[in-house]
Amino acid sequence: MATTVASWRDSYKGMSSDNIKGLVLALSSSVFIGASFIVKKKGLKKAGASGVRAGSGGYSYLYEPLWWIGMITMIVGEIANFAAYAFAPAILVTPLGALSIIISAVLAHIILRERLHIFGVLGCALCVVGSITIVLHAPQEREIESVIEVWDLATEPAFLFYAALVIAAVFVLIFNFVPDYGQTHIMVYIGICSLVGSLSVMSVKAIGIALKLTLSGMNQLIYPQTWAFTMVVITCVLTQMNYLNKALDTFNTAVVSPIYYVMFTSLTILASVIMFKDWDRQSPTQIVTEMCGFVTILSGTFLLHKTKDMADGMFITRCLITGSAALPIRIPKHSDDDGFENEGIPLKRQDAMRSASH
């Protein structure tokens, strides 16, 4: 028994101090970001009641103080997240965004009256378990001594190919799919945010490393590569903010949050593995364990998503009676006690359900 314990201790070296700093920053970031989704949603509802909705191309939310409070909260969370990437690998920091889903779902249940069922609670628990699994088996941060090293990693053929695919996909979604399907298919807006987000995280990590090195006495601000990464971040963040606002205003918050998390995290981990070669420093067992943790998180977010399908008991009864697996794109909205509209669940094929019930 003692031999087994000693062997385990030898194989598990624990988290580095940088990884611990990144972990704390990532957790605090998730708290702020999770809360910001709800505050911004409230602001978007109030703005939509007196002007053109963001989902319809309006910008009246810019005059709503509540939306700005939510935006400031999100900025604080993003700053903490930004700092986390300077200390820990993306494969550790990004999955911890699952905590923001839990906070968002709970607050949506309390404040927005978007019902959270027992399976939603189970989904939250799975997200926590998966996050802990990833934290315990995350790779150590790669030692980088100059932003030039990051630039060299970003300009390798494999990552350039990935970036080209992402940019092409984003342009196709914006010009070919947004006009016709943006208001009815949640994956259009979320797809744009997630694809662009994977590139922004890589650039954020580069800037974070540059600032960390600068503060330690090695000035990285003199390199044009630092400012090139900065321009990429600004462009990507503005794009993400625009289409995330449209998604939040058009679809149910408790559906937007998990789907965005799943796509954004998956693409970010893929980008990080390609660019920073995180898995090159890990054993197959560690990689498989991390993937199991990630799948556990995905299962949790799936449960949180599917729980929202149970919000209307009559709707489920109709599904059971008709034997149909088809689900509507959006159920009708109804007003809450504040006089604002509660959003229905953005699912698929409402007309098919109606015809089947007749």
Cα-atom Rg, whole angstroms?
21 Å
Shape: globular
Q: How large is the count of helical segments?
A: 14
- Termini separation comes to 67 Å
Helix content estimate: over 70%
Number of strands: 2
- Spatial strand order of the main sheet: 1-2
- Low-confidence segments, given as residue ranges, are 3-12, 311-358
What's the helix-strand series?
HHHHHHHHHHHHHEEH
Q: Please state the structural category.
A: mainly alpha
Overall pLDDT: 78
Sheet of most strands = 2 strands, antiparallel
Beta-strand percentage? under 5%
GO molecular function: magnesium ion transmembrane transporter activity
Keywords: Cell membrane, Endosome, Ion transport, Magnesium, Membrane, Transmembrane, Transmembrane helix, Transport
Family: Belongs to the NIPA (TC 2.A.7) family.
Main location: membrane
Provide a short characterization of the protein structure.
The protein has 358 residues and is mainly α.
Descriptive report:
It is a single chain. By secondary structure, the protein is mostly helical. The chain is built from 14 helices and 2 strands, in the order αααααααααααααββα. The protein has helices spanning 2-11, 17-50, 65-87, 90-93, 98-110, 118-137, 147-154, 157-181, 186-215, 224-250, 253-276, 284-307, 313-322, 350-357, and strands spanning 334-335, 341-342. A hairpin with a 5-residue loop joins strand 1 and strand 2 (341-342). Helix 3 crosses helix 9 (186-215) and helix 6 (118-137) packs antiparallel against helix 12 (284-307). The chain starts with a helix and ends with a helix. Residues 3-12 and 311-358 have low confidence and may be disordered.
